Amino acid sequence: MRWILGSAVLLAIALAFGLGLMVYAMYALIAVILGSRLLVRYWLMHLTGTRHVSKLDVEEDDEIVVGITLRYTGAIPMPWLLVEDLLPRHAIITRPPALEVVGRRLFLAMLWPRSTRLLNYRIKCNRRGYYQIGPAVLETGDVFGLYKQFKMIAEPEFITVEPAILPLEGFDLVSKRPLGEIKMQSRLFEDPSRIAGVRRYQLGDPLNRIHWASTARTGELHSKQYEATCIAGVSIILDLHPDSFPERDEPIRSELAIKCAVAIANAVQLMDQQVGIVTNSVDAAERMKYEGWDFDARTRDAARKSAGRVDKDPRLTPQKVRTRRGAEQFQQIRHMMARSEKNEGLHLPSLILEMQSELPRDATVIPILTKVTPEVALALGNLVRSGYVVTPIVNLFDEYEYAQAAGMLLAERMVAKQLKSLETISQICQEQAYPLF
Predict the structure, then answer these.
(1) Collapsing DSSP states into helix, strand and coil, what is residue 183?
(2) b/e burial code for range 266-279 (CB count within 10 A of at least 16 → b)
(3) How far apart are CA 353 and CA 191, in angstroms?
(4) Alpha helices in 191-247 (DSSP H)
(5) How far apart are CA 131 and CA 144, in angstroms?
(6) How many Å apart are CA 311 and CA 55, to the nearest integer?
(7) Mean pLDDT score of the chain, rounded to an integer?
(8) Which residues contact 403 (CB under 8 A, 6 or more apart)?
């Protein structure tokens, strides 16, 4: 518009003073400007694009190939075209980036009439998460640089990068007791495979409990006594509230907590024990629907419009995979952890209060904590007093901070374990845990 207004002003001055040569020059400039606008719009109107991603579900350290196919159906050559495939800002500004581009995602090309052009690059997925690839932004204009126009093509694709699986050492695969011999606080369950002794028959004992050898030897009915079932399986409570993670430690500590949760879930699943998880995180896909996608200003409005809104704020709803046995349990947990983000919706004490009724009593409760406050220690202590066996894992590197946190938990009759670094995850469950009585 500035060029058109400037040309109109100069044309008016030339007409007023009778400057014939300038009048013709302004007519020519206005014709070039208007012609450029029509030509650029013609080019973009006949240009379409699609995106192809080699894999949408990947693991950490995997590489994917992204290809953009441009199809130009116009009859007039396009002298230049700038193509940029957009990626989330938070995924590329860290060092190392969560999504590392191998090659170029910014292309400059010339398109001939009725031609097709394939542009591709690779992405190395360094960190778990849920990421949007695209849309692609096109920019073209006339050869004089008087007019440029943008267009978005290629619908966005979403990739899920699942966290790496780290093996745990120290699990007894034969006995299938994930945290060793843990004494139950109440004898609610018995293990028929573990006979503790024999006693006289009592009215109401089922026939399958009668010990026939002792009955035959003594001439009186005797029943078998079973040992109390040791804690079978794990319920993980993962705290991902932003207040628990100082900025100086991010994203290291939050990623470490998620990797630890996945490692424990995998080890328990391999032993065919029940496993589940509850967390105060938010699903990245739901967050995108609620807030819009994290891109620069050129595309955010379009992303908001295409994403729409959800009726309920997902930040106030805990994420959970119910504790049970099943071949699909671990994959559900891993997929949920891949899309989990820190969330301000619920603090840990509120999460425990809301989800306590859904935690089975025959499974060890493993809270993974990064910040232990008196309120958190009291909430976990209430679980202990309610009959749960609780083994906290404190995600702190500093020994002094860990000692303070472990002291508050010990006062509530819980023995904590320290998660210092990525290298210590494999030994996190080596020692046997015994609740204090």
Answers:
(1) coil
(2) bbbbebebbbbbbb
(3) 30
(4) 212-218
(5) 38
(6) 31
(7) 81
(8) none
Distance CA 158, CA 133 (A): 6
In SS3 terms, 146-164 reads as: CCEEEEEECCCEEEEEECC
Per-residue pLDDT of 287-338, as tens digits, reads: 777 665 544 434 444 444 444 444 455 567 889 999 988 888 999 999 999 9
Judging by DSSP bridges, how do beta strands 364-369 and 393-394 pair with one another?
Answer: parallel
Judged by DSSP in three states, 50 sits in strand
Alpha-carbon distance of 168 to 263, in angstroms, equals: 7
**CB environment 365-385: b (16+ within 10 A), e (fewer):** bbbbbbbbbeebbebbbbbbe
Single-letter amino acid, residue 45 = M
**DSSP code string of 375-416:** HHHHHHHHHHHTT--B--EE----HHHHHHHHHHHHHTT---
Share of the chain above pLDDT 70, in %: 81
Angle at 205 between CA 199 and CA 210, to 5 degrees: 60
Average pLDDT on 171-196 reads: 46
Q: Which residues of 145-159 are buried (b: 16+ CB within 10 A; e: fewer)?
A: ebbeeebbbbebbbb
Do 31 and 4 form a contact (C-beta atoms < 8 A)? no
Compute the distance between CA of residue 415 and CA of residue 436 in angstroms, rounded to an integer.
Answer: 8
Q: Where are the alpha helices (DSSP H) in 123-251?
A: 212-218
Q: What is the pLDDT of residue 296?
A: 44
What's the pLDDT at 11? 67
Whether this prediction's pTM lies above 0.70 is answered by yes
Q: Which domains does the chain have, with CATH numbers?
A: 46-162 (2.60.40.10), 190-228 (no CATH), 233-309+316-431 (3.40.50.410)
Q: How far apart are CA 362 and CA 388, in angstroms?
A: 8
What's the pLDDT at 292? Answer: 56
End-to-end CA distance of the chain: 80
- Contact indicator for 427, 175 with CB cutoff of 8 Å: no
Tell me the pLDDT band of 370, cut-offs 50, 70 and 90.
very high
**C-alpha 240 chain-centroid distance:** 11
Q: Packing angle between helix 329-338 and helix 252-270, nearest 10 degrees?
A: 170
